[in-house]
Amino acid sequence: MYRRSAAAAVLLAAALTLTACSSGGDGKADAEAAKPKPPAASSVPDPADASAAPVSPDAKPTGPVLPDAKLTPKTGSFKANEKQYLSGRVPEKMDPAAVLQTGQESCQRVERTAKRDKDAATGAIVAGEIPGAKDAITYLCPEQKPILDAASKGFADGTRQSPAAGTYRALTQATTCTWEAKGKDGAVLASGPESPAKPGDKITAAIPAGTATFTSAGCYAWIPA
Predict the structure, then answer these.
(1) Would the CA dihedral through 55, 59, 60, 63 be positive or negative?
(2) Which of 182, 177, 218, 211 is nearest to 194 (CA)?
(3) Which of 24, 46, 89, 119 has the greatest count of CB atoms below 10 A from its CB?
(4) Are the beta carbons of 47 and 38 closer than 8 angstroms?
């Protein structure tokens, strides 16, 4: 009887411990507190510091939106280009400044990445890793237009239907990039690379006319060479 009671006590203690762990949170608060903060003088929060974006900058609301006449911040005023960006983008009862911030963060990501590596910034836009980059650059950081223009001529890794013939360059540092161009009958028209890539090699693909599908893997993104 004593052994059964002791075993039951152990099980009960374990159950209470699990309950306490589940009710005490998953440690997110501690993780958030440990995140590095941007300098006090920074006018726009670092994207890495945002725990959740209020709305995706490339997703136009499907419901009612604030009319342009009501696109005003709680303090100060928006610039003309900021109002253009916000037009038709702010759901009712949402702070326009919060929506603007998402666009500013997209600009920050493009600017910071381009400063280190323009190809990386172009590839990130092509691959869709910077949400709303097109509108953000167009209205909020037009100085990054060359990056956007380069990205507009490219396409992401995977399968592309009826690609334009020409020579393309893979925006990747990986050596595992492979590609294949097929005609309408499924016959392989070209493939590559011809020899295994080495670190630092630029991988290009010559897509012949008449290509029905171009499939690549491990290449990240492609732009005209």
Answers:
(1) negative
(2) 177
(3) 89
(4) no
d(CA 30, CA 39): 20
Full-model pTM: 0.70
- The strand pairing partners of 217, in sequence order, are 178
Residue among 220, 97, 217 at smallest CA distance from 154: 220
Radius of gyration of the chain (CA): 25
Amino acid at 203: I
Secondary element (H or E) of residue 26: none
Contact in structure between 177 and 163 (CB atoms under 8 Å): no
CA 115 centroid distance within chain = 17
Instruction: Give the tens place of pLDDT for each residue, 142-166.
Output: 999 999 999 999 999 999 999 999 9
Positions of the chain with pLDDT under 50: 1-57
